[in-house]
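Batch manifest line 723
LIGAND: zinc ion
JOB: complex structure
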Amino acid sequence: MTAADLVRVLLPLPLAEPFSYRASAGGLQPGEIVEVPIGNRVSLGVVWDGEAEPLGPGKTIKQVIRSCDAPPIGSALRKLVDWVAGYTLNPSGAVLKMCLPEPRALIAPPPMRQVLHPGASVEMRPSAQRQRVLDIARERPGLGISELAEAAAVSSAVVRKLLELGALRAESVPAFRPPPHPDWRKPGRPLNTAQAEAAAGLRAAVNARDFSVTLLEGVTGAGKTEVYYEAIAACLAAGRQALVLLPEIALTQQSLDRFEQRFGAPAWAWHSEMAEGRRAATLRAISRGEAHVVIGARSALFLPYADLGLIVVDEEHDASYKQEEGVIYNARDMAVVRGKLEGIPVVLASATPSLESLYNVARRRYAHAVLPERHGAAALPQIAVIDLRKEKLPSQRFLSAPLVQALEETLAGGEQAMLFLNRRGYAPLTLCGACGHRLSCPNCSAWLVEHKRHGRLQCHHCGHQQRLPEACPSCGAEDRFKACGPGVERLAEEAAMLFPDARLAIMASDTMTSPGQLAEMIARMERQEIDILIGTQIVAKGHHFPLLTLVGVIDADLGLAGGDPRAAERTHQLLTQVAGRAGRAAHPGRVLLQSFLPEHPVIAALARHDSAGFIAAEMAERQRAGMPPFGRLAALILSGSDQAQVQAAARGLAQAAPRGPGLVVLGPAPAPLHYLRGRFRERLLLKAARDIDVPNVLREWLAKIKLPSAVKCAVDVDPYSFL
Ligand code: ADP
Ligand code: ZN
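JOB STATUS: finished
ARTIFACT:
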């Protein structure tokens, strides 16, 4: 057997590297989708690049079963798979699985269904039932067998008999009708000068048919969406596919509606909560180039587009782009990698760009398009800080007097208000008033959060739920539990007490479980059926409520504590985004930040509207500390159910730590969440100079150590979560 008869085939399975198979004469091209035997099953795989290893003696090699009739996986996507696998230290098969979440969808024939029409007039025994069926078939052609039977209130046997007699005729039609194509000729809104300039830059980038990255930065409400729509129009005009990534599934519906208004036809949605049939149809349409525009969550990045011409990453700063499980990756960064491999432009849009992107602008690796002002008459809101050290809150209350007064004024003026608190549930902590015992999760080192709505305590990390116990598990005291601190439910209780006539609503990720519910809540807000909207970070993003003029931030300091090197940056982004919800139309808005730390650089910069000053100071601080974007980080998280074993493994790993100029290893230390889902966790953090190939350092490091099989090691390159 010669090497030429052998091919490498990558299977979309978590542990797979390419396997060798024998190909029949004629050969197979890289990218082809093939069926191969694996163990005693048959799997789909992709013919991979590179030479298959010649076989060791005595090894048998299986034969490729067949090449499938499906569009091949392009070379850029194959390179992306290998690149991401190398960068994140995952097997290529795990990454390929993200490209082919439903591999069969690519080869399955399009689902068809049978519909009925009136047939020839035939001689037959007349009956009332038959007549009803024929009448309905004439009035409503195109029903399926069971639909027609149901409409005529007969059994489907009656319908089948008529089919057999020829009185009805059946036709096979696609079960899923692809929507009409978006119309790129349809003009958008007339753009203002800054928008027109930014749009021209993006259109040129699309028409260059080459890799580029543009950071589209514009204050909230500046009209970034209108601008990147122009890039999409250019991409459609070139006959290529465009992908828009959004950080949050909850935002897709709004985004789809807006897209449809602009282009007269819907885009294709992609996210993890779609029904299976829809996912399969979408994947198929993407791979065949029938889906011209896809709007999706981060997982849409890896799909096998037939001819991708543009990637837009909206809200590029958002930490939700980081996938924290399985293959740990940042979709914003991987979008840039895909853009580079495909040779296409990438647009990163944000009102509060990440320091990483701003750094790349400063180094001239990214182009910068700036929209300095809100579109039209809308002005940015006034921001004031309420110093909670002076404005003392009454016990068990969370709304200060100035905020209450501002709410009164807003409601009296017939306008809307939003209260922002990034805490779900009623109270983040419940303790026993007799002994001080804190109710915590049995599986995690985390407090249980009370949710009055469900009458339960919940762990926000593992999902554990329980009722409030009758007696303290520690001292046995009964009915002595006290809620500590506010969550959105508790805040709503206080607002309802202060404003009994106001219409209140809570918007939080656990109360809005489906995109439809969120869309409904947004619609109610737009119709002004809500006076005070109380929400977690889900309200911060993207929404446009013309009559919302007051935003109250209950605890502006909330995100500043803890060991996250991006804490200040994130708080600045989040609060800027929240503040940006106010006064987006003709009515001016104001924002009140309740804080115990008014002098903190983040809070002070917000109050001065001085983003640039904050970012310059934060950049200098990161540079001094060698933190991203000036240095690189990678985390190793060891976990297992035996604490001593995990600690010993972590010490062993630390002893083998790489040394050298530009390398520092911190830890091991118990993770802030040192017990999670029943596993003990230890963290090590690698800090490296920018020019160091971190994945390679990690590979060499991990190769030196044999971890016990009960200890799991998660590798997080460029970590965003430090829990
Ligand atoms: P951003 O994404 O920058 O926050 P949007 O694109 O959502 O801003 O625009 C904010 C609001 O201004 C939206 O209602 C949008 O329709 C409107 N808008 C933006 N640009 C224009 C324009 N050129 N003409 C008319 N309305 C615009
Ligand atoms: Zn838990």
